[in-house]
Design goal:
Strand order of the largest sheet: 3-2-1-4-5-6
Radius of gyration: 17 Å
CATH class: Alpha Beta
CATH superfamily: HUPs
Bound molecules: adenosine-5'-triphosphate
Largest sheet: 6 strands, parallel
Order of helices and strands: EHEHEHHEHHEHHEHH
Number of helices: 10
Oligomer: single chain
Number of domains: 1
Number of strands: 6
Structural class: alpha/beta
CATH architecture: 3-Layer(aba) Sandwich
Length: about 210
Amino acid sequence: MQTIGLLGGTFNPIHFGHLRMAQELAESLNLDEVRFIPSANPPHKHAPLVSAEQRATMVRLAIADNPLFKFDERELNRKGASFTIDTLVSLRDELGEKTSLVLIMGSDAFVKFDTWHRWQEIIKLCHIALVQRPDKKPTEALSKTLALFLEQHYTEQVDDLHTAAVGSVTMQAITPLEISSTAIRRTLQHQGSARYLVPQNVLDFIASNHLYST
Ligand code: ATP
């Protein structure tokens, strides 16, 4: 069964933490591709100063040389808030039921998963791969509801992501890279360098468009 990883995010800007995480998951979970899905209007974050088109361009530049990575613009084309459930429904409409989808999520995001729009329907449309971010709280802070959800769906068998199209939650260790878009924006605001945190072609785009410097 074809197995596709889904990495949504603000990507404001995209950095090597995102790229390395996607690469490692593609390998450890045997993914056929990872789709980068920039959010147009993230419901959980304040509106970013950089436009959705500029964030999307940076994602395109960052993934251009990796055949495993694909750009997915469906959230940019949708009006209103970007809800994951709508993205998954739209992907299912396009790909049918026989493609396995793996929603990649930082464990920091999973702690609030039960506040997401129609969250209980999400696992009926995809699997979930949780990754531990080095700079964020571990999953011990889970609510009872989420702990139960994890117990019901948890698997350590990568095969489960390939034999069924939906329904499992796995947890993956990745090389911890303590990089965040927030820290990068702060560095650039103070005229610091983000070299080796962000791909060079993305840094060139940031410089030529004067992003994050004021
Ligand atoms: P911000 O600092 O603006 O909140 P961010 O660096 O967390 O941004 P997002 O675009 O919100 O970036 O992240 C998209 C996804 O990538 C999320 O699931 C997030 O948990 C994950 N992620 C971001 N940075 C890392 C990292 N350094 N290592 C592993 N996962 C990461």
